[in-house]
Amino acid sequence: MTNVTSILDRLARPPEAPEASAEDPMEKVVEETLDWLVSRQANDGHWAFELEADATIPAEYILLNHFLDQVDGEIETKLATYLRSIQADHGGWSLYHGGDFNISASVKAYFALKLAGDDIDAPHMIQARNAILDHGGAAKCNVFTRCALALFGQMPWRAVPVIRVEALLLPKWAPFHIDKVSYWSRTVMVPLMILAALKPMARNPKNVDIGELFIIPAEKVRNYLANPTGHWLGTVMIFVDRVARLAVPFFPKFLEDRALDRGMAFIKERLNGEDGLGGIFPAMANTVMAFDAIGMARDHPDFVIARKAIAKLLIFKDGMGYCQPCLSPVWDTSLAIHALMEAGLAGDDPVVEKANEWLRGRQILDVMGDWKANRGHIRPGGWAFQYRNDHYPDVDDTAVVVMAMSRARGDADREAIQRATEWILGMQCRNGGWGAFDADNEYYFLQHIPFADHGALLDPPTADVSARCIGMLAQLGYDMDHPAVARGYEFLRREQEDDGSWFGRWGNNYVYGTWSVLCALKASGEDMRAAYIRKAVDWLKSRQRADGGWGEDCASYWQHRRDEVKESTPSQTSWAILGLMAAGEVNSKFVRRGIDYLLKAQRNGGKWHEEYFNAVGFPRIFYLRYHGYSSYFPLWALARYRNLTRGGGKLPKFGM
Length: 656
Fold this sequence. Notes:
By secondary structure, this protein is mainly alpha-helical. 47% of the residues lie in helices and 4% in strands.
């Protein structure tokens, strides 16, 4: 194994940005953006930008408060204003800006607005209701929405697949085990299992119902469950669900009680203080409702802290507010460091040092998280996405943090890098790739169960995360002869799409994936003239738009819409430019046109205007807009272009 310490000793300090005229348009934009980004650094050294999702999260926040009868009128008014502001022209709500009508998001938003006091005869409510009914009514919602409606008595519990808390007692060799699903599914499902067992009824202090959203009354709908994949296994799973439903009355009560205890133990061990179970809103909300369902007092420390974690997700501005799905400080901070150092800040600059010091304090060194199910032999050493989420460090964040620290080359980071590298190497999957939170989480038959209609039950290896890990290892000096890099390289070769691109699991979409892989391959020493590399380059060039930018719609996650574009965006344009420069295209007209697009695009200080969502939680189900992406990625791309064209040097051996 390569000695990390000796590698760190050999790393050269990144070159400072070349001098240029202060009147140069590019220099002016770089300096303005750099200053703006530095000014947003928190006193303790980190950055945390807003993270926005669709209507479901603020709507669920309103539903939660009415479930508990803990309604805050002022907050609710601001959330309702936000929900009205993002209602689309089609009458309902979409999963992302400019997207198609989505039945589940629309039903939740309508229900939330009605709970908040909106008159159902108001024009926006009539428009929403008509759109919902035109799409089959509330009975067509997904499983998670049906669970929420069942808790409010708006649907019978038979509308929900059988969710038995006794599943937590199953042995690991059983077809289903909680360790076999992804971290996000795990943290959402365990409190949901408790709710499904106890079937509490929402307080619903205003006695609001949404019967008008059903074409036929909810209790008269016969078949709620559908095959989530269309595969024959899905049909089998629906049959199994029906058999299980018949068997439920005969389940021993003592097993349910034992499983409820195990579920509560799972939650309490991972409660995660003010950062909440799993650090994600759906898990936090289900936790609070589960606490309420078991009769936990409102002043119990666990209940209080769980509510506080949710309150920290709220954002208020311009007379409205929304609830974030989670917080992204580690991700924002590590990416901001890369952009700032690319723009000329040295590794010993106080801004960079303070940021790295903050990151060092967030490294998870003592908690064996849920990843131990498949990798219990390795020591912890990763970083989470949020402020704290010790049971769920993530591979992608860890790789980006290590690359940022190694660029700065601070001696204080040496031990942190060694521990993280050990963890990353240990988390490599059997097929050579890396997943985001778990290793070898590929129990694909579970995708066919009726509960999995969201299509994101698992956390398999993906090209973008794997590229980040290979880029990190390459930046630390691991070459193609190292077994981990060689296996990862082969994984990436297998994952390339027929058109030359790579799929982007955590960012929109093929542009994001292709940028990630090209940077990793360049850092690894791959010949960027290789045929498969040129195919990827040609694909990126073919996707450039007439305005010089790149833009890829969230709809690209549906195969028949993979080429859909609405408009160019600064973040996606930056990814494309960075990917092309990694492939040696710095002097091409495509890169130059992309740079011109960034220089001319609408910008407020150091933040480019970007309404379109730029990332994904679950493809085709849940999308995100990282508000920081339209700042640090354009800065990164412009600064790298400046450095390469004016410095006359080659791309530094950085992994991204």
